[in-house]
Design brief:
- Its cofactor is NAD(+); Co(2+); Zn(2+).
- NAD(+) binds at residues 106-110, 130-131, 143, 152.
- This protein has helices spanning 25-30, 46-60, 79-92, 106-118, 132-138, 176-192, 195-209, 213-233, 248-257, 265-282, 288-301, 312-320, 348-354; strands at 2-6, 13-18, 37-43, 64-70, 99-104, 124-129, 143-148, 151-158, 163-167, 330-337, 340-346.
- With 356 residues, the protein is an alpha/beta fold.
- Strands 1-2-9-6-5-3-4 form a 7-stranded mixed β-sheet, sandwiched between helices. The protein has a two-stranded antiparallel sheet with strand order 7-8. The protein has a two-stranded antiparallel ribbon with strand order 10-11.
- The structure holds nicotinamide-adenine-dinucleotide and zinc ion (ZN).
- Nicotinamide-adenine-dinucleotide (NAD) binds at residues 43, 45-46, 49, 72-74, 77, 104-108, 110, 130-131, 133-134, 137-138, 141, 143, 153, 170, 173-174, 178, 181, 265.
Length: 356
């Protein structure tokens, strides 16, 4: 088992990474809980795959476990569902010394984490992420929350978990498309922070796509270290943490314009990363060779690189309404060299010019 420590002073916590070691989880969870009461949130896809096993292990370790199963999918990440969860937690009798566990992907992690942040003004939270995206991104960093109608992640909090437990063998039941969605975020880390990771992905993509255990563990670990580092330097997103939005400005617009149906998040981010790199090339921040390598890596993974039928004017309009933009300047995270990005303010015309 590998352990990474996320350094956030008194809110520091470990990320355990293992392969097929869920049996171990009872012992590990004991180290990070104040009482033997656990309230677990999962979804309808993950429940039949892993719930009974996790529950039996936790029971064996002396825990009393209650559960809530949300319908799988982004549409569950809303205030009504949060209310149902909170009412049920209260009914179950969970006290301030109890812990809430998220067993599932980013949807479960975000809503269970927000329940943990708000129930009795905050109880301990544990993440057991089961999608690649959740393992390398959403379970690290403490952002939790739900969507409002028409606004993603508008209501939320920062609530760091007490521990994260990643079992890479859970990825075996995940479909290929969801694996690629997580891979897009891993490629992102290579571009924003780590040339070695970028080259590792270039060199080993075929085996990674075959879920080679050692390689998957390596890239998950690298990703958690990078996200952990960025978060520990800028927990509340004053500045540095914004670099994690590389590919997300155009990506979010594409997701919204297609009604969150045509593309999963990672696919939209992959397309967004290509267009942000194009903007870098246009501004001579990177050379053609690096631009080509970014595009080639994304293509090699099987992720999309073009936005298809959409109108570029609509994309720009949506970007301008993005909550992260001030005035008329649009903030973009742009590659400026291998493993390095910076934040630029660009105008509408510059964006239109690269969307062709
Ligand atoms: N908090 C953050 O910092 C942060 C960062 C990135 C994304 N997010 C959020 O994460 C969410 C997306 O997360 P996601 O991509 O994990 O989506 P998800 O939670 O919807 O999971 C994707 C699908 O995989 C299924 N699934 C999960 N684990 C499985 C497994 N092991 N085997 C088979 N099926 C499995 C789920 O039921 C779901 O159908 C979004 O709501 C996004 O806003 C949050
Ligand atoms: Zn993302």
């Amino acid at each position: 088992m590998e352990v990474i420590n996320i350094d956030l002073k008194d809110r520091s916590y470990p990320i355990y990474i293992c392969n097929n070691m869920l049996d171990d989880i009872g012992k590990v969870v004991c180290r990070h809980t104040k009482s033997k009461r656990i309230y677990l949130v999962t979804d309808t896809n993950v429940y039949p795959l892993y719930y009974e096993k996790v529950k039996a292990i936790l029971n064996n370790a002396g825990f009393d476990v209650s559960k809530f199963v949300i319908p799988a999918g982004e549409s569950s990440k809303n205030l009504d569902m949060l209310k149902n969860i909170l009412e049920d937690i209260y009914k179950s009798g969970l006290l301030r010394d109890g812990s809430i566990i998220a067993l599932g992907g980013g949807v479960v992690g975000d809503i269970a984490g927000f329940a943990a942040a708000t129930y009795m003004r905050g109880v301990d939270f544990i993440q057991i992420p089961t999608t690649l995206l959740a393992q390398v991104d959403s379970s690290v960093g403490g952002k939790v929350g739900v969507n409002l109608r028409g606004g993603k992640n508008i209501v939320g909090a920062f609530h760091q978990p007490k521990m994260v437990y990643i079992d890479t063998s859970n990825l075996r039941t995940l479909n290929k498309r969801e694996i690629l969605g997580g891979l897009a975020e891993i490629i992102k880390y290579g571009v924003i922070w780590d040339k070695e990771l970028f080259e590792y992905l270039e060199y080993n993509m075929d085996e990674i796509l075959n879920l080679n255990d050692e390689m998957i563990t390596h890239i998950i670990k690298k990703s958690c270290v990078i996200k952990g580092k960025v978060v520990s330097l800028d927990e509340k997103e004053q500045k540095l943490r914004q670099i994690l939005n590389y590919g997300h400005t155009v990506g979010h617009a594409i997701e919204a314009l297609t009604g969150y149906e045509k593309y999963i998040h990672g696919e939209a981010v992959a397309i967004g990363m290509v267009y942000a790199a194009k903007l870098s090339l246009k501004k001579s921040l990177i050379d053609k060779e690096y631009f080509d390598r970014i595009c080639a890596l994304i293509k090699k993974s099987g992720l999309p690189v073009e936005y298809g039928e959409l109108h570029k004017e609509d994309i720009v309009e949506l970007i301008r309404h993005d909550k992260k933009n001030k005035n008329d300047k649009i903030r973009f995270v742009l590659p400026v060299g291998y493993g390095k990005v910076d934040i630029f303010e660009v105008n509408k015309d510059e964006i239109l010019s690269i969307l062709d």
